[in-house]
Design a protein that fits this description.
The chain contains 3 helices and 2 strands, in the order ααββα. It is of the alpha+beta class. Strands 1-2 form a two-stranded antiparallel ribbon. The longest helix is centred in the first third of the chain and has 15 residues.
Length: about 70
Amino acid sequence: MVARVAAEVNRHVVEMTPPRKKFFGQVRKAWQIAKPAPGVREVFNDNKVMRMLEEGTWPHGPVTAKRYLSR
């Protein structure tokens, strides 16, 4: 049962990842299912582009925007 649900989740995330954008073909192919323990399945993507999409880049603000002054 757990393996079937993991396969369905894997299929769903692969379908939901855009196929024809710049790096998304690699991201789409990188989805995997791991079995860390009996009765446990983990669906993950260890692609570095996926990590950037999930976590973002370092925080920064607009460089050329005018400063907003509150009154």
